Amino acid sequence: MKKALFCLLFVVAGNILNLKAQTTGSITVGGDIDKFYPTLWTDGGWNNNVASQLEIGRSSVHANSNWRGSLIARFDFHVTNWGHGANFIDADVIQDHNSTESVKFIAGWSDATFANASARIIIWLRGGGTTYYYKSLFPVTPVVYDGLANPLPFLEQDRPPHTFKTTLDPYVNSNGLSKQGTAYFYGDGPNYFSGNVGVGTWDTKGYKLAVAGNMIAESVKVQLQGSWADYVFDDDYKLQPLSEVEAFVKKNKHLPEIPSAEAAKNHGIDLEDMNAKLLKKIEELTLHLIDMKKGMEKQDKEIQDLKSKIK
């Protein structure tokens, strides 16, 4: 009984030590400095029913050459391994250095097991003799396909061949998280975003919020930054004669101060600015109507006076 218990404790302890053992090492990716080459990494946690965690880093910007650049990245992943579920690749990447030119090291990643059980992911890393240091809780067995260590392209079973990249894939966030899943935040407090936010687009064009597609809201409030158009009703406001408005419309096919259809399509419209301009036109139109009413009332009086004289 004691022997069996000892053996059981030994096996459990051995498994715990095996799970906590770290795999560390380094790889060097050859080829050209301006290309990113496929490197393979094993999902060592797959058979242990947990996600694998892989850290890849370059702390010194002068590793391999002066100002080569630095990188700190972490990947949490679980591959499909020929059809199994719960597969994902999440990355946290910080890749930059302090010189005037920004150098990136990771151009993308992919599950390499959609039609096989190799339990591997692909990470495209910059070449040119660049060294990367890695750490994982499980064996990751890195393999480099740079045309030197192994020939290009890497042939994934029943999938298109994988060769080098020259640009970063759009999902690569070089300053933080790239999550494959969706996000749910259940807290009642405010959520703060310091930078710009893009929904359906990577290019926010400098705006705090950019949405590519339709948007719905129960209420939209625009905080006024510029002036409102009530100055139109000031006594010293010079109202443009309708004859000038008519000439402008005939020539330009839109109202004065209002952007053309082409300009609105190409550059968009500012809600605050456009509402102020539309209000200005409404107020100007109101003044014209008031003047017309006064003129009609004057004409009516003159007509009545003429009728009286005729009688």
Fold blueprint:
Elements: H1 2-20, E1 23-29, E2 36-42, E3 52-58, E4 70-78, E5 88-96, E6 106-111, E7 120-126, E8 130-136, E9 143-144, E10 175-178, E11 197-199, E12 209-211, H2 242-252, H3 261-267, H4 271-310
Parallel strand pairs: 11-12
Antiparallel strand pairs: 1-8, 2-7, 2-9, 3-4, 3-8, 4-5, 5-10, 6-7
* Gyration radius, in Å: 34 Å
* Helical segment count: 4
Which whole number gives the mean pLDDT? 90
Structural class: alpha+beta
What count of structural domains?
2
| DSSP strand tally | 12
Poorly predicted tracts of residues: 4-19
Order of helices and strands: HEEEEEEEEEEEEHHH
**Cα-to-Cα separation, first versus last residue:** 134 Å
Name the helicity range. 10-25%
Strand content: 15-25%
Give a quick account of the main beta sheet: strands, pairing sense, barrel closure: 6 strands, antiparallel
> What's the shape?
elongated
Largest sheet, spatial ordering of strands: 1-8-3-4-5-10
What's this entry about, in short?
The chain has 311 residues and is of the alpha+beta class. The chain contains four helices and twelve strands; from the N terminus they run αββββββββββββααα.
Describe this structure in words.
The protein has 311 residues and is of the alpha+beta class. It folds into two domains: 21-178; 229-310, no CATH class. It is built from four helices and twelve strands; from the N terminus they run αββββββββββββααα. The chain has helices at 2-20, 242-252, 261-267, 271-310, and strands spanning 23-29, 36-42, 52-58, 70-78, 88-96, 106-111, 120-126, 130-136, 143-144, 175-178, 197-199, 209-211. The strands form three sheets. It has a six-stranded antiparallel β-sheet, with no helix packed on it. A four-stranded antiparallel β-sheet has the order 6-7-2-9, with no helix packed on it. The radius of gyration is 34 Å and the shape is elongated. Residues 4-19 have low confidence and may be disordered.
